[in-house]
TrEMBL record:
This is Kynurenine 3-monooxygenase. InterPro entries: FAD-bd, FAD/NAD-bd_sf, Kynurenine_monooxygenase. Pathway: Cofactor biosynthesis; NAD(+) biosynthesis; quinolinate from L-kynurenine: step 1/3. It comes from the Bacteria. GO terms for molecular function: FAD binding; kynurenine 3-monooxygenase activity. HAMAP family: Kynurenine_monooxygenase. Catalyzes the hydroxylation of L-kynurenine (L-Kyn) to form 3-hydroxy-L-kynurenine (L-3OHKyn). Required for synthesis of quinolinic acid. Keywords: FAD, Flavoprotein, Monooxygenase, NADP, Oxidoreductase, Pyridine nucleotide biosynthesis. Belongs to the aromatic-ring hydroxylase family. KMO subfamily. GO terms for biological process: anthranilate metabolic process; kynurenine metabolic process; L-tryptophan catabolic process; NAD+ biosynthetic process; quinolinate biosynthetic process. SUPFAM superfamilies: FAD/NAD(P)-binding domain.
Length: 450
């Protein structure tokens, strides 16, 4: 397979960053997206603007393509979780060391910046081109456009067309394609906390705010315009508090006053937004192989995960970083080899982060409110302070390092089992300061050696 024109499906975050990487390799890049060009037609995000947490893996890729300084002004550092209890009290749980933060960034603006950078480097974006089918036998893509059907016969295709990827759907019609999708029981809805009358942030802007309530939760991330974008995660149906049971303003008032009263006081547009904004589903997608002939899936198209580790985009950016590394190593004359190596290397890691994202949902909505969980985090932070190389909390391995997700997962499970033993001490709340930390490290080293 030899060709230096690359067709990318999807000008989302991952497609745009991949285009930047490929342009820097001197390749011809053509991107096709079903959306209209937002610069020409105002595009309604439809209450799905989404603020995201950008962390180390994402920054690393942005730095490599020289974009870190351009992205920084769009991002607000969040140094930890601010947990709001039902009585309006708050507890701050740092994410890592004092200077370690994840960064809140609006998906829309960030996407626009990346797409424009790709264009400036010479990538061509064809908006209003919805891929409806890829015929692998004929090497042909079919697009639906406002002026009718268009067909194209590209040599190399990278599918970055998101969780409902058209390329992946065409792959599903091929033999021996494995595919698994799972909708979780919860959906989400976006809401807003506007700036105060004085034009200030209504809460601490340098934290990710979280109202964990067992089976459901609300989170809020800061925006540069001093508002917060909130996301309400509730079961669709079947529980005392669920989307199905909030039918009118009174139901909404009752839920918010009972569970999120301090946030409620800061949300003047709650009713309008709640009933106007869509309730969206959350999906986990795993599939394999990611390669079919001359086509490769990356980003959410190959591994859409639930958003509870804040890694979907970061992981997709890491896909681009690793694919670029392989292109540098193997050149642009053997895309089949590059794609094959990429999927073999990357698949175990994306499986690990998909799994961690599912598990973190329980931590966010439930455990963070538990004082024992908070103590556990403190003990782990102390271990990390005393033995920075030997003990790295799982969250830090995933968020503040580029250790492979597989390795982080395995090490995290080991540490979890040791911490379970530590926390089993009924007097741990009193004894934790006098723990034998060296012994804990020894236990871990022994377990690793087995
Ligand atoms: C509520 C929520 C919160 C999240 N929070 C975080 C977070 O904090 N941190 C994080 O790292 N990740 C987060 N994510 C995940 C993140 O949004 C995704 O991982 C990321 O957007 C994936 O980028 P992508 O480019 O692969 O797909 P997308 O962003 O979905 O982009 C796909 C692009 O392809 C185009 N497209 C789709 N179908 C076609 C077609 N048939 N033909 C042509 N074009 C097509 C679309 O128009 C779009 O432009 C969150 C996700 C959700 C839902």
């Amino acid at each position: 397979m030899k060709n230096n024109t690359i067709t990318i499906l999807g000008a989302g975050l991952i497609g745009s960053l991949m285009a930047i990487y490929l342009k820097r390799q001197g390749l011809d890049v053509q991107i096709y997206d079903k959306r209209p060009d937002k610069r020409k037609t105002p595009y309604d995000e439809g209450g799905r603007s989404i603020n995201m947490a950008l962390s180390h893996r994402g920054w690393k890729s942005l730095e490599q393509v020289g974009l870190k300084d351009k992205v920084l002004p769009l991002a607000i550092p969040m140094y930890g979780r601010k947990v709001h209890d039902e009585h309006g009290g708050t507890t701050f749980i740092p994410y890592g060391k004092a200077n370690q933060a994840i960064y809140s960034i609006s998906r829309g603006k960030f996407n626009q910046l990346l797409a424009e950078e790709a264009e400036q480097l010479g990538a061509q974006i064809h908006f209003d081109h919805k891929c409806s089918e890829v015929d692998f036998r004929k090497h042909e893509i079919t697009f639906e456009t406002p002026s009718g059907i268009e067909k194209l016969s590209p040599k190399v295709i990278i599918g970055a067309d998101g969780a409902y990827s058209a390329l992946r759907m065409s792959m599903q019609k091929q033999i021996r394609f494995n595919y698994r999708q799972e909708y979780i029981s919860h959906g989400y809805k976006e809401l807003t906390i506007p700036p105060t009358a004085q034009g200030e942030f209504a809460m601490d802007p340098n934290a990710l705010h979280i109202w964990p309530r067992g089976k459901f939760m609300l989170i809020a991330l800061p925006n540069p315009d001093k508002s917060f974008t909130c996301t309400l995660f509730l079961p669709f149906e079947g529980t005392k508090v669920c989307f199905e049971k909030i039918q009118d303003s009174q139901d909404l008032d009752t839920v918010f006053r009972a569970y999120f009263d301090d946030a409620y006081q800061l949300m003047p547009d709650l009713k309008t937004e709640f009933f106007k904004n869509p309730t969206s589903a959350l999906i986990n997608v795993e599939c394999y192989p990611w390669v079919q002939g001359n086509s490769l899936l990356i980003g959410d198209a190959s591994h859409a995960m639930v958003p509870f580790y804040g890694q979907g985009m970061n992981c997709g950016f890491e896909d681009c970083y690793i694919l670029n590394q392989l292109i540098e190593k193997l050149g642009t004359n053997s895309w089949d080899l590059v794609f094959e190596k990429f999927q073999k290397k990357r698949k175990p890691d994306t499986d690990a982060i998909c799994q961690l994202a599912m598990e973190n949902f329980i931590e966010m909505r439930d455990s963070v409110a538990d004082p024992k969980f908070q103590l556990r985090k403190k003990i782990e932070a102390k271990l990390h302070e005393l033995y920075p190389k030997e003990w790295i909390p799982l969250y830090s391995m995933v968020t503040f390092s580029d250790m492979s997700y597989t390795e982080a997962y395995a090490q995290g499970k080991l540490q979890e089992s040791i911490m379970d033993r530590v926390m089993a001490d009924p007097l741990i709340t009193e004894n934790w300061k006098n723990l034998d930390y060296e012994d804990i490290i020894n236990q871990m080293e022994t377990a690793k050696a087995v």
